Amino acid sequence: MRNPHGFPIWYELLTPDPDAARGFYEAVIGWSVGAPMSSALDYRLLDTGQGQVGGMMRLVPEMEAGGARPGWLFYIGVDDVDATVARIQALGGSVHVAPQTMEGVGRFALVADPQGIPFYVMRGAMDEASHAWQANAPGKCGWNELTTPDQAGALAFYAEVFGWSYPDRMSMGEMGDYVFVEAGGETVGAIMQRPADAPPAAWQFYFRAADIDAAAAAVVASGGTVDMGPMDVPGDERIIVASDPHGAVFGVVAGSRAAA
């Protein structure tokens, strides 16, 4: 049975150097990165040892000319791509890549919310569920976090398009509330207001590793940068936010020493 409408189903890295990215993420997260799918399409699957979490695609000059940059995006599963895209546009969002079908893969579109933050919507060709998001599975995405310049607007938009609900929130003092997102009956992430001095608004994804200190050390040893952490967060977890050698930002989450 496929995932419910509005559930995250795939994670994708756009990078100018897939060979270098392969070595980096294998060292930091522990993924096994496959070979290019074809000579025409340098797309490589990211395997956790317990199933795939996503893929990485080569950033080519034509993409850069169109404004693409190294970074992570995710795919949100929907019942009907065309109807969802129409709804996104009606609510003030935009379309970067119009709905299209890839044989054997499914129908998808690259869109942005009303604040200009991009993501994909997709209906896969197969009926089986994706397990790219699993809160506690090694190598899988364990948290999806949106930092936005308009938290109230984002909450309304994603609820309307994807049926998300917000069962709980945590006060962060002057930064406002950290609002938890429920999709398909699971808490899959949170939405927060972007502070004035913070990095650009974006979706950020935290992938689970065995040890946060080892992951942080691997980031630095492999040519990346630890931008924040390691730090403790609620739930007996520790996180870092890092940039890979090409500037793509991502998060890593692991259990705390106390919880281990």
Automatic annotation (TrEMBL):
Origin superkingdom: Bacteria
SUPFAM superfamilies: Glyoxalase/Bleomycin resistance protein/Dihydroxybiphenyl dioxygenase
One Pfam family, short name: Glyoxalase
Protein name, per record: VOC family protein
Positions of the VOC domain: 7-124, 140-255
Matching InterPro entries: Anthracycline_SecMetBiosynth, Glyas_Bleomycin-R_OHBP_Dase, Glyas_Fos-R_dOase_dom, VOC_core
